Amino acid sequence: MSKVSLKKLSITLGGNAIIRALDLEVEEGEFLVLLGPSGCGKSTLLHSIAGLTECSGGAIEIGGKDMSRTDPSERGIGMVFQSYALYPTMTVEKNMSFGLRIAGVPKAEIKRRVARVAGMLHLDELLQRKPAALSGGQRQRVAIGRALVREAGVYLFDEPLSNLDAKLRTDLRRELKLLHQQLGATMIYVTHDQVEAMTLASRIVVMRAGEIQQVGTPAEVYERPANLFVAGFLGAPAMNFIEGELDAAGTFAGGALQLALGVAPGGARRAVLGVRPEHIALAPAPGAPGAAGLQGRVTLVEPMGAHRVVWLECGGKQLSCMVQGGRAIAPDDMVAFTIDAQRACLFDPDSGKRFETAGASSMLAMTV
Asked: Keywords on this record (predicted)?
């Protein structure tokens, strides 16, 4: 396994700056996920590390060596693409060993590597089949196996699960996680799917328009998003945002909602309050003790299997919350609720950056 260092990396395609002076350190053995919307530059960045896209500035170091101008075959990487790209006339065994045969690896070594990887990916019984006789999930496992037999220092994955159905994605996501635990290899994975990012990554790099917005563990980027973009991109449903004012005493007021935070970063100012849906809890019944005077009207209920997403209208604001259990809830019901103010976030509405607060009070007030 190898460390990957990107230093002031810039990539320009067709006269357009895709990546601008980007710095990033990928530690040995970590599973780093590049996450962001389509067109943010994450795949371009991955292809640049692989040597498939030329960088216009900066440096790419792999294993401590500058590989910025090195041929892809000499970078010590294995890559898995979105499409399976298997040779249809070759068996699974031949597809997996093709690169090794071209490189002149001895037959006995090829056999050892293919057998080892086939065992890890549960492909032992499929080695003599051709791609046409395989399911989508099996084909993608073969594509992953073709990269793993290289025994590379770094493995790159470019949205490898995006062409699979939901169940296959879940199954292969689990297998990839277990595979990383088993190999301990350095892996860099590109996706726009936040579930993949949260479940696979040891660290997530959130990207937007060719720039890094935040780097951190899944818990860090979810619980303490660096800005409004990260806060809104992660989470389903997305974080609730309420624009308002923060006074010198640290009380947030947005429409009819008031939230005592106990701290005012920089004094009185405009602010955006962010609250995750799971941090809003419905009281057992309207007017029940502990409801803190918070009430809203149910506008929509979305069944999600193990939980429901309930949308509330409160003083002209739409808030989403997650509800567990079988309590009967229907549109137009008036419900009481509480907010976990300790886990609320505050953002600057102009820069979008997060305000650091010393901890929020649980005191809330709402008039409807």
From this structure: ATP-binding, Cell membrane, Membrane, Nucleotide-binding, Transport
For tokens 């809830």, the residue is 329
The reported pLDDT for the residue numbered 365 is 39
Question: What are the residue ranges spanned by the domains of the chain?
Answer: 4-229, 238-366
pTM, to two decimals: 0.89
Residues β-bridged to residue 270: 245
> Which H or E run includes 108?
helix 107-120
Residue 95 CB partners (closer than 8 Å, separation 6+):
86, 87, 131, 142, 146
**If pLDDT is split at 50, 70 and 90, which confidence band does 264 have?**
low
* Separation between Cα atoms, residue 232 and residue 241, nearest integer Å: 9
How far apart CA 205 and CA 222 sit, in angstroms, is 12
Helix (H) and strand (E) counts for the chain?
Answer: 8, 22
Q: What is the pLDDT of residue 259?
A: 76
| Whether the predicted pLDDT of 164 surpasses 90 | no
Q: How far apart are CA 174 and CA 180, in angstroms?
A: 10
CA distance 361 to 207: 32
Report the alpha-carbon distance of residue 59 to residue 297 in Å, rounded. 55
Is it the case that residue 21 has pLDDT exceeding 70?
Answer: yes
Tokens coding 68: 């910025």
Residues 193-206: tens digit of each pLDDT:
999 999 999 999 99
Average pLDDT of the chain to the nearest whole number: 88
* CA dihedral for 353, 354, 356, 361, sign (positive or negative): positive
Contacts of 154 (CB under 8 A, 6+ apart): 1, 2, 4, 26, 49, 62, 75, 76, 77, 78, 185, 186, 187, 188
Is pLDDT of 348 > 90? yes
Average pLDDT over residues 158-187: 89
Q: Is the pLDDT of residue 363 over 70?
A: no
Burial label, 99 (beta-carbon count in 10 A; 0-12, 13-18, 19+): middle
Residue 129: DSSP 8-state: -
DSSP state of 63: T
Q: What is the pLDDT of residue 293?
A: 59
Using a 10 angstrom Cβ sphere, with 0-12 exposed, 13-18 middle and 19 or more buried, the burial of residue 97 is buried
Fold of 4-229: Rossmann fold (3.40.50)
To the question of domain 238-366 being in CATH 3.40.30.10, the answer is no
